[in-house]
Amino acid sequence: MGSKTLNSMTGFGEHITSPPIEGYRITAKSLNHRNLEVQLSLPREWDHLDLGIRRIIAQEVQRGRLEITVTRIDSTPGRNGNWLPKAIEAYQDLLLLKETLGVAEPVTIDQVILHLSHEKSPSYQPVNAKDGLGAVSRAMEQLVKSRQAEGEALKEVVDALVREIQETVSQIDRSRPNATEKTRAHFLARLKDLIQEVQSQDTDRRLEEESLFYLSKKDNEEEWQRLKIHLTRFRLDLADAGPIGKSLDFLLQEMQREINTFITKETQQEIFQPAMSIRNTLTKLKEQIQNVE
């Protein structure tokens, strides 16, 4: 296989903005999803950038559930600690109010918080589109690097599972001629028994019916060849870069269908057991491919 890597659908990226739009943290998180789904959580001054952000995401990723969150970071000197004087002032105001009204109950923290929440929120000007989208792009760059790093580790696991399947396929290929001969011998023995059972005018017809029935039930050559074709296609696609998760998932479904049918028709133990091993490995492989972009 080539040296190209897969991209995972899970990852994380973060960017803290700097002048001229300092004071924001941008996080980009992606999870598994069949298609591309985008969810944005933006402060009001970023709302006008919604469409532009979605375009940036579509250029960078093809599949996954993307969550972009922009939150304000209060970077004004001293502002991070100015809540305490305000809380004290609110407490004193509430004390004075209760004394004036003659209310005996003490002032509670909930009342102080409620009082503070009634303060007018600061107003923010819409951020510059170029600066805002540039900041989102930097967060997306970190996300993409994260997905690529996880994809490299994922590819090692997938490659190992594919090698395991390929080795078992080769083992079965070596065993099939002998197994086929055993099946043929069993078939001939069954025919001899049948001839003795149906010595009559209908012997030829019965033999033909039994032969066709037996062969139709036990011939799994077609399924075996299709399995190997799909496996070859899978290995070729795996060596390619880009969003190949859907293609790999489809090929896995086809391989699982072929191996299941193959197993139901197989009678020889030296073939049946390795085929079961292939089916189990395909299940493990499918679990890994669910995370491939």
Quick tags:
single chain, 293 residues, alpha+beta, Ribosomal Protein S5, domain 2, Butyryl-CoA Dehydrogenase, subunit A, domain 3, 3 domains
Would you summarize the structure shown here?
The chain contains eight helices and four strands. With 293 residues, it is α+β, with helices and mostly antiparallel strands.
Describe the structure.
This protein has helices at residues 50-60, 83-101, 109-117, 129-197, 203-218, 221-238, 245-265, 269-289, and strands spanning 11-16, 24-31, 36-41, 64-72. It is α+β, with helices and mostly antiparallel strands. It folds into three domains: 11-76 and 128-147, Ribosomal Protein S5, domain 2; 81-117; 150-289, Butyryl-CoA Dehydrogenase, subunit A, domain 3. Helix 4 packs antiparallel against helix 8 (269-289) and helix 7 packs antiparallel against helix 8. The protein starts with 10 loop residues before the first strand and ends with a helix. 22% of the residues are buried.
